[in-house]
Amino acid sequence: MKTANVSWDQYIAYTVSESESQPAVISIDFKTEVKEGLIIHGTVLSLKDSKPIGDLKLALIYGQLRLTIAEIAEINFDNVILSSDK
């Protein structure tokens, strides 16, 4: 497991390479300094030609989790709690 601390103006990138073995699961845990929430932005790439097909957005704000995948889907989860225990 690797730990990285980033500020609001930094980012974390994970590059998938066909020439290397890839994990079956990538797990990411986030901790925030504020109770208001967390917003994650990314890009969805085509598996055929690696061209961008849309944005990936994950927002956890005031107890609501919203996942947007390109222009394909938007998923809402209610009653999500930020815990300072972890």
Q: Which shape, going by the Cα principal axes?
A: globular
* Alpha carbon gap, first and last residue: 15 Å
Sheet of most strands: 4 strands, antiparallel
How large is the radius of gyration? 15 Å
H-E string: EEEE
Mean pLDDT: 73
Number of helices: 0
Coarse structural class = mainly beta
Strand order of the largest sheet: 1-2-3-4
Count every beta strand, where a strand is a DSSP E run of 2 or more residues.
Answer: 4
Considering DSSP H and I runs of 4 or more, what fraction of the residues is helical? under 10%
Strand content: 25-35%
Unreliable residue runs: none
How is this structure best described in words?
There is one protein chain. Helices cover 0% and strands 35% of the residues. The chain has a domain at 37-77. It is built from no helices and 4 strands. 1% of the residues are buried. Strands 1-2-3-4 form a 4-stranded antiparallel beta sheet, with no helix packed on it. The radius of gyration is 15 Å and the shape is globular. The chain has 86 residues and is an all-beta fold. The two termini are 15 Å apart. It has strands spanning 37-45, 52-61, 64-69, 73-77.
